[in-house]
Amino acid sequence: MRNRKCVIVLAVVLLGLAVGQASADMVYWTDRDGRTIRRAPMDGSGPIEILLTSADGLSEPRGLGLDLAGGKMYFADSGTDSIRRANLDGTGVEDLVTPGIDFPADVELDLTAGKVYWTDMLGGEIQRANLDGSGVEVVRSGLNLPYFFDVQPSTGKIYWAENNNTLIHIANLDGSGTIETLDIGDERIRDVAVDLVGGKIYWGDREANTVERANLDGSGVETLFGPGDGLDRPHGVEVDPAAGMVYWADTRTYSINRGVTDGTMPAEVLYGGLPDAWDLELDVPPVPEPSTIALVLAGLITAMAAWARRRYGRR
Asked: What pLDDT shows up at residue 288?
């Protein structure tokens, strides 16, 4: 009996760790018109910290990516046509890539490979470099206004939307192979956030005033939140799969918002009165696929069942 209790306690502890992983700390966002990068607690409790401003050279900050382990944030500035980075507290601003970009719109990181990716909207390209800005290379060229995007290193895929239509494209992260295109039938897509564990793609639609999701193959489109929930022009979208929450910035209600990923509860305004909240990132660790903790728990459950059969099967 004592051994069984120990195993159960250990399983509960590990489950608690798994839930703890879902808890988040801060949400970071760029504010284009305010020429700032800001952060605040993800539960809406405040206060808002202004990390970088025009005094740090910000002109039109747009895409944002976080390297939590490395203590860095990366961002695209379409006003200076540059990719830059700084410490998470806003100190140590660096220019990484300045020449050869014509309207950088979004930034994503592949930390496993040590790469920063960005979309060059007017140049029609997706580019990448090492995290220190060296080794710039073109991953995809000849594209139509690539805008917001997401990278998934575990599957070697990149997902991107265009500036002016309803298409989401999928291709290999290294630039090889062909491009798959999903036409999800909306009006004007903004941002793309992929949840591989849940098998969903999330996005905002700035003209339909909605946050939506679909299966990874583009089927099963669902509207999660819309004008009735106070949405006007959703832009940056991020999903926290472990917590079951989706976050977005709304450039016309000047706010940071969140809601449950299945849309079954009302949307919540976390922070309002912002000049022009644009793109956002969450201070949460990526969810492994499959989760290491989930594997450990599955092993424990199997071991408990085997032990119980041996212990009580003889009675």
From this structure: 55
Percent of the chain surpassing pLDDT 70: 83
Question: What is the 3-class SS of the chain, one letter each residue?
Answer: CHHHHHHHHHHHHHHHHHHHHHCCCEEEEEECCCCEEEEEECCCCCCCEEEECHHHCCCCEEEEEEECCCCEEEEEECCCCEEEEEECCCCCCEEEECCCCCCEEEEEEECCCCEEEEEECCCCEEEEEECCCCCCEEEECCCCCEEEEEEECCCCEEEEEECCCCEEEEEECCCCCCCEEEECCCCCEEEEEEECCCCEEEEEECCCCEEEEEECCCCCCEEEECHHHCCCCEEEEEEECCCCEEEEEECCCCEEEEEECCCCCCCEEEECCCCCEEEEEECCCCCCCCCHHHHHHHHHHHHHHHHHHHHHCCC
- Position 186 scores a pLDDT of 80
Where are the chain's structural domains? Answer: 1-24+290-315, 25-283
Residue 286 pLDDT: 64
25-283 CATH pick, 2.40.50.840, 3.10.310.10, 1.10.287.130, 2.120.10.30: 2.120.10.30
Rounded average pLDDT over 288-304: 46
Residues 6+ apart with CB under 8 A from 99: none
pLDDT value of position 285: 72
Whole-model pTM above 0.70?
yes
Amino acid at 260: V
